[in-house]
Specification:
single chain; alpha/beta; 9 helices; 22% strand; elongated; binds S-adenosylmethionine
């Protein structure tokens, strides 16, 4: 059975999509989608040998060799032009790493219509990348599994402008204001306040002052939520 987190990512993949799942690890996501008859074809990309081999093994064991191609490759270089990939998923990594993968592989996105990302931390990097590179957010989801909170950001091509608060917390999530969303930002603000308080006792160097300033600004910004 797929985790709630990956099932949520899968729910944003459209029927009949040609998928590239980057950083696929065991290839659970493409295997699930093919078994569910939601898609017929997928590429599973992995840059590390161990996870790559486990993806190859899983795909074979599930009898999905004809449907899923596993490639040992860094980021979007797993995608070849003839694949006609129209959907990319990148899940289970930090936001900055996902943004770097998208930035470095921009020229591989020619036929891609939808990018579904699930950053574990710092989702803002992805929103910032989208705004600066001609992609817009078309949906977002936040969910909690085993005490951890995950965000999913779905992108399609198009112009977008987001303000600082939307970049930080997500324009759709901000609208929805779910309990999980409020819990996440309550937790974060409390943590920043705790750090800020501990800095009150530190010597007033330039570095400390900048850090305090940064934290106060974050607290003020997110406080609006
Ligand atoms: N996507 C799966 C999921 O969400 O359950 C696996 C997540 S796993 C924590 C992250 C995987 O991304 C690891 O297997 C890692 O080797 C792979 N990875 C990290 N950087 C990568 C890159 N630049 N290109 C391809 N894969 C990468």
């Amino acid at each position: 059975k797929l985790s709630d987190r990956l099932a949520a990512v899968a729910s944003f993949v459209e029927e009949g999509a040609v998928l590239a799942d980057i950083g696929s690890d065991h290839a659970y996501l493409p295997c699930y989608l093919v078994h569910a008859h939601k898609i017929e074809r997928a590429i599973a990309g992995e840059v590390v040998k161990g996870p790559f081999e486990s993806a190859v093994k899983n795909v074979k064991r599930e009898g999905l060799d004809d449907h899923i191609t596993v490639r040992l490759a860094n980021g979007l270089s797993a995608i070849k032009e003839h694949d006609q990939v129209d959907t990319v998923t990148i899940a289970g990594m930090g936001g900055p790493l996902i943004a770097t993968i998208l930035q470095e592989g921009k020229d591989k996105l020619f036929s891609v219509k939808r990018i579904i990302t699930q950053p574990n931390i710092h989702a803002s990097s992805i929103r910032q990348w989208a705004m600066e590179n001609g992609w817009k957010i078309v949906n977002e989801q936040i969910l909690k599994e085993d005490g951890k909170i995950y965000e999913i950001i779905v992108l399609e091509k198009g112009k977008s402008v987001y303000d600082d608060l939307e970049i930080a917390v997500g324009p759709f999530l901000l609208q929805q204001r779910s309990d999980t969303f409020l819990e996440k930002w309550n937790r974060e603000v409390l943590e920043w306040q705790r750090v800020l308080q501990s800095l009150e006792h530190a010597a007033e160097t330039e570095e400390i002052r900048l850090k305090k300033d940064h934290l106060s600004k974050r607290i003020q910004l997110i406080g609006k939520v």
